Amino acid sequence: PAAFAEPLAVLGSEVEVPLVSGEKVGYAALDYAASAPALRRVWDDVAAYAPYYGSVHRGAGYLSQLSTELYEQSRQAVADFLDLREGDQVVFTRATTDSLNLLAGAVPAGTRVFAFETEHHASLLPWQQAGLAVTYLRAPRSHAEAVAALDAALAADPAGPDAPRLLCVTGASNVTGELWPIAELTGTAHRHGARVVVDAAQLAPHHRVSVRELDVDWIAFSGHKLYAPFGAGVLAGRADWLDAAEPYLAGGGASRTVARQADGSVAVEWHRGPARHEAGSPNVIGAYAIASACRALTEAGLDALREREELLIERLTEGLAAVPEVRVLSLFGADAARVGVLSFVVRGWNSSHFSAALSAEYGIGVRDGLFCAHPLVRTLLGSEDTAPSECGAPEPSLPGERSLNAIRVSFGAGTPLEHVDRFLAAV
Ligand code: PMP
User: Fold this and answer.
1) Are 33 and 202 within 8 A, CB to CB?
2) pTM for the whole thing?
3) 372 is catalytic
4) Nearest residue CA, atom 7 of ligand 1?
5) Domain covering 44-299 in this structure, CATH number
6) What is the ipTM metric for this complex?
7) Domain 16-37+301-426 homologous superfamily, CATH
């Protein structure tokens, strides 16, 4: 497949790195699932805006007003990108982790949460941490099994449909890259009166997402995985629970009026709408960069992006299938559809050593570890009994038969075929 033309060219494609041989090669960034390189278009848009930026809201000066306008337009660009419904809100956050923690603090008291144990820790942990009752569903081995497990869990839930209930589920796994049956799970959840939030950190950068068509209640993603820089993310969806919740942070911007009371305390009236959860000076550049990425992806066509990526995925999976020592990790089987994210282990190899060698000998940047999804990776490796290791911590053992960590390769817009081919040759 031809390389991407503008506007999906990414920064960093000219970076060269030294190998142990002393030679220098172009860096093959194959760790998009952690953070994707920025689109050149995003960087150019941010650079063009930079001289004009000012603090949003209430500034009387021209640049402050301009920034306020651009900040609100950025919200609209995200709403268009996600195909939100009338009345849905876009809250700018720091990233997906922040978005899901915000939602965990905003759900009505007593909300019962359902999550598959296969989630990334960002979508697995905030609910329990917020003091909510969580039902963890075991790793399903097919889409049908996932839907049936949710159906059974909701039906068996003693609180019944009158209690507020929420399913949190990933759109695409950050470990296997496999797609989850979001529309079917949402249909099942809604039939039981439960709401749904989708962790789209790995889905939104690869596939067109329509909140309206999927009918999900909320969606979260990170700018730095969507070809924008670090520091900004999105929580988007239904306004009712968000408007009824305590503000995520207390401070200026979220408060509409604050008045001294006779007893010496202060009475606060909080804003409704996104401002309620965006106290403090917002990350205008981050929001603007996300909006720029949303527009660039839409203009280039997410379907074209996906089509090209699928050719790379096919090349990758066929190439790895030809190496008998390689085992590709999968929940849903060899035919499961995935985004450009794949994890594997190599028999007889320590995954950390293998990844280090890809870097030092071939200039290829992948990732090894448990990818902040410990229960999932342990299930996939069949090592549920192993001692916990830190998120991404290197494997302690010497090369052996049994892998405690996996190797993840991931790509997207701007990845040339040569990177995939070099990776396969190196493996
Ligand atoms: N969910 C998934 C599926 C992810 O892959 C990640 C990032 N690895 C996150 C959530 C957390 O995103 P962030 O680190 O940007 O908050």
Assistant:
1) yes
2) 0.95
3) yes
4) 34
5) 3.40.640.10
6) 0.99
7) Aspartate Aminotransferase, domain 1 (3.90.1150.10)
